[in-house]
Amino acid sequence: MKSIPKAVANRLSLYLRLLERLHGNGVLTISSRAASETLGLSDAQVRRDLAYFGTFGQSGIGYLVEELLGKVRAILGTDRAWPVALVGYGNLGRALMAYAEFPHRSFHIAAVFDSDKAKVGRSARQLKVQSASRLFTRVKQLRIPLAILAVPADAAQNVAWRLARAGVRGILNFAPVRLQLPKRVFVSNIDFTVSLEQLSFHIRHTKRKS
Amino acid sequence: MKSIPKAVANRLSLYLRLLERLHGNGVLTISSRAASETLGLSDAQVRRDLAYFGTFGQSGIGYLVEELLGKVRAILGTDRAWPVALVGYGNLGRALMAYAEFPHRSFHIAAVFDSDKAKVGRSARQLKVQSASRLFTRVKQLRIPLAILAVPADAAQNVAWRLARAGVRGILNFAPVRLQLPKRVFVSNIDFTVSLEQLSFHIRHTKRKS
DNA sequence: AATTGTGAATCTCTTCACAGCA
DNA sequence: TGCTGTGAAGAGATTCACAATT
Hints:
Two copies of one chain form a homodimer.
Chain A: H1 6-24, E1 29-30, H2 32-39, H3 43-51, E2 63-64, H4 65-76, E3 82-87, H5 91-97, H6 101-104, E4 107-114, E5 123-124, E6 127-131, H7 135-142, E7 146-149, H8 153-165, E8 170-173, E9 186-189, H9 192-204
Parallel strand pairs in A: 3-4, 3-7, 4-6, 7-8, 8-9
Antiparallel strand pairs in A: 1-2, 5-6
Helix pairs in contact in A: 1-4, 2-3
The first copy, chain A, binds a DNA duplex (22 and 22 nucleotides) through helix 1 and helix 3.
């Protein structure tokens, strides 16, 4: 099997969102043309992307929404539930704990940790915030594969190492630092200021309308 | 002037972070080789990227950190202060309000809005949360160029339109929807579940170590 | 008639490799 | 010698365009 281009992987979530919406609306089939218009891509690109995962389109008709949905879910790995460890229960951690989209999309917070004694023991939904000292043991014991890192920048690398040693395979990192980790651990970075900088860059480099 | 490739724009924030750290540590020069190792890029790429903005490296020495820092800041547009409107004062909105990195990086929240009457009037730092009905007028009056959208998915498109009409040039969107806007308005999307899906995808498609 | 899947062409990005500079 | 800046080559991603399919 050809390996999947990075660019394609980044678009899969896009397809998933579209297909879930269509399925929810009872739409049975979708053509590459129709999908491409909704998503702002080209029709050829949609076909090329989907072709990486097999050939399940139907000439003259398009793709069966339900079948394709199952396929994309399987490809993304969201056809099963993923327990996630949340580390850091500050402002951001609390917002993530309350984030309603996660449970609807196969990710559920299975444990919450914080190093601040004042926060430990506090109830977050049905969970209690646990001391960060128990992080390694608990994550390993529960075999939690994913973690969300919502701790201050200067604590991030240390926590990341402990998570990696505890067997975590992927980390969603909100701290504005580049984590150094063994390559079996994948990292997705979300950095709010980087995103704002992209906006200021584009504004600065575009002709003003007025 | 050649137009700047998208891929380069995305790396500028990376360079900015590195240069700020070096400058803080009193480092005077940096070679493309040294920079590339820290950042996990190739040395040729660093040189190529920087060359888009002029030629200010020095043969045999490298780049002057302070000069390059100023240059990168100017390119990204973070050499001046950017007022930002925050729309949505729920869990995420409060976390963003408290986010300490923004003020250090030329972005400051200049106004906060929420449609929930119970939240209006509440104090967020030195600001009072304002009614969303005043959004258009206030944003226009204050000429706020950037907005952070931290509202529920079903309200996002409507708020985005009002922001666009009020003259906003860039929107950082946290709602899991694709905003339709005039193309003079740039959008950066941050979608937590998309990032988690990228992790599950990579884990699913990688040989397990054990 | 409508639509897929894909070779070939094109466009974009990255790396190689080296002349030229301090 | 150590390093930049860049032309040329290479790799990767996108689009074109059309034979094959229902």
